[in-house]
């Protein structure tokens, strides 16, 4: 794979485009740039003058997209920013993106890319041996190896249970602690063997290390906290004035409110997104027993997808990594 090539196939691309309806002159934020697949499509659909702010916490992902989409960077239509989407407001402020006209769409395609998964040296995969790293952002201090070699057994079991929903969490944590006493666990293959030891796997079932690896990745990258932090910031970014200059020049026209599209890959992420959208799409969030509203909460979102959109059988056959994807979309309610 050369540097500008990505192995990552964008998930639910048609659905994302259908919901975000990119238009010329529009401004879009891709908070999880990855291989740049969704961004490339947003740029194409919003030609000739739509713009995308692409954010990723992984410098290698940014470097790859810098080569792949160099012409759009040169023309000023693609702005890249290294950072965590949890700092969205600050990144938007720093880049001045959408400061005047507002942003028409924000996309988050959560988790990690095939480029990260398929690089054994990143430590995400249990199928190939590599260092037990799992950091999406190479600047992070703690690796998965640090976590498994230093965390107390009960806490480790809790992490594997909470973030991996792994029913064997206590047993796996106990084994990890026993094994690390012999020698620190530093490779993905060794951890995978520890998780799988003595487990009979039915044909077609997931690898017995899958849930533990998911849990460690979520913990190392603080994925759920980052997601909870970014959602209200997306709402703020979308709620600013929504006007787009026409491609012919001076006239401005108003268009529909901006939309957020979020693709989650496991139930923990999806629950956070679902609960947030539900709450923000509701006027009063007082407990039902209160006879009158005391919260004063006003809906700031309109739910666009009542149930999450999921990939069709063709996409799943073409790209098995899409099978657990759930796309939820909401639209900002812009008050005059
Ligand atoms: C599933 S991939 C995105 C793929 C992309 N949509 C495409 O079509 O190529 C997720 C990307 O989001 C990045 N990422 C995950 N969490 C992040 C966060 N909190 N802030 C910024 N980037 C993040 C990962 O590094 C990875 O490159």
Shape: globular
Structural class: alpha/beta
Tally of separate domains: 2
Query: Count the strands?
Result: 9
Please identify, by name, the CATH architecture of the largest domain.
3-Layer(aba) Sandwich
* First and last CA, distance: 50 Å
Strand content: 5-15%
Helix content: 25-40%
Provide the residue-averaged pLDDT. Answer: 92
Point out poorly predicted stretches.
250-255
How would you name the oligomeric state of the polypeptide chains in this document? single chain
Helix count, per DSSP?
14
Major sheet details: 7 strands, mixed
Query: Mind telling me the CATH superfamily name of the largest domain?
Result: Vaccinia Virus protein VP39
Rg calculated over all Cα atoms: 21 Å
Topology:
Blueprint: H1 13-20, E1 27-30, H2 37-45, E2 51-56, H3 59-68, H4 70-74, E3 78-82, H5 88-95, E4 105-109, H6 114-117, H7 144-150, H8 153-164, H9 169-182, H10 188-196, H11 210-221, H12 223-238, E5 243-245, E6 252-254, E7 259-264, H13 267-280, E8 301-303, H14 313-318, E9 326-332
The protein binds S-adenosylmethionine.
S-adenosylmethionine (SAM) binds at residues 8, 10, 32, 34-38, 55-58, 61, 84-86, 109, 111-113, 136, 226.
In short:
It contains 14 helices and 9 strands. It has 336 residues and is an alpha/beta fold. The chain has 2 domains: 13-115 and 224-332, 3-Layer(aba) Sandwich (Rossmann fold), CATH 3.40.50.150; 121-220, Orthogonal Bundle (DNA polymerase, domain 1).
